[in-house]
Amino acid sequence: VVHELDNFPSGKMCSPAASIGNKALFGAGAYANSTYYSNVDVIDDSLTLSKATDTTAVDWGAGCSSDNCASFSGGWLKGSNAAYNMYECYTETLSRYTAYMKVGRAYHRMAAGKQYQVAVGGLNLRGSSPTSITEAADGISGTVKQYSSVVGRMHPFVGSSGLYIIIAGGSTTGSSTNEYTSSAEYIEAETGVHGTLVDIEHPVWCGTAVSINGYVLLAGGQLSSGKYNDEYGVRTINVYDPELTKRDSLQLSMGTYAMAGATTSEYAMIGGSYDHRYVEVFGFKE
User: What is the pLDDT of residues 87-122, one digit of tens each?
Assistant: First the structure.
C-alpha cells in the first residue's frame, strides 16, 4: 500500500531521518534550485503530517534513533563553508533539547549506543580533511564527550551493535577522487574504549549501515575505481556480530551505493540508490 502525503516539502534532499515511538522525523534538507528547508517534518502511525521545532542546518546532516530520542547533528549552514556544531534531540512529545559539539561536521554519520548518540567523521569546513574527533552526546542532559582515537573519515559506514559503534570505510582525505579505505574500527560510546577490527572487503565510501539484534551490516559502497563487481559499487554486505567478530559476508543482487537501510525485529532491509529499484530483505532472528 502506497500513501502520498500532502504538504510534504517537494524535493527535500540530503535530509537525515530518525524515529521515536510511533513518530518518524525528517530533518533539514535542500532542493536543487537552492531552496533550503530547515523544518522538521513528523509523520505518525495514522500518517498525519505535523511539524517539530525547526533545525538550523540545511543539508548533509546525520540522524539516528535511540530509546529516548530521535537525534540530528551537524550539516552545512546556508550560505556558509562551515558545518553546524549542534546536536538536536527530539523526544516522543517532540520536546527539543540541544547540545553543542566541539566541532561542526557534515558528510558524517551517527549511531546510538546504550545512552549516547555518537557522531563520527565528516568535514568541519568545505574542502577540509575529515575530523578524527568522535563525539558522544546525551541530548536530553546536554552532556557531550569527545574522543579523538578514530581515523578521520568522510561518508563512512557507522553502525551500532548496542554497546559498540562500528566504523569502517570512507574517504580519509575528504576528497571524492581519492582512494578510499577498507579499515574498520570500533568505539564504545559511553567510555571511548577503542580498537581495530578485521577490514571490510573493499575500500568504499557512501555505503549504508544497518543494525539488527546486535549484528551490524555494512552494505554496498562506491569504489574509487571500477575494478570490483560493476561501475556503480560493490555487492558485498560485511557482517560483524555482537562480539565484534567479522562473519561471512552476504551479497546484494547488484553493486550499489548511497542507498537506505531500515530494520524490523527480524529483518534488515536495504534499498534504493542509483539504478537499484528494489528493497532487499535479509532475515536475522535472535
Answer: 999 999 999 999 998 889 999 999 998 889 999 999
- Rounded-to-integer distance, Cα 148 and Cα 152, Å: 9
Beta-carbon count within 10 A of 186 CB: 20
Compute the distance between CA of residue 209 and CA of residue 153 in angstroms, rounded to an integer.
15
Report the sign of the C-alpha dihedral through residues 201, 151, 117, 44, in that order: negative
To the nearest 10°, report the CA torsion of 198, 202, 207, 212. Answer: -40
In angstroms, the CA 157 to CA 120 distance is 9
C-alpha closest to that of 14 among 22, 147, 32: 32
pTM recorded for the entire structure: 0.88
Task: State pLDDT tens for residues 130-183.
Answer: 999 999 998 788 889 988 778 999 999 999 998 899 999 999 987 766 679 999
Please count the other Cβ atoms lying within 10 Å of the Cβ belonging to residue 209.
Answer: 23
User: β-pairing, 62-65 with 49-52?
Assistant: unpaired
Please, are residues 224 and 179 in contact by the beta-carbon 8 Å criterion? yes
Question: Letter for the amino acid at 28?
Answer: A
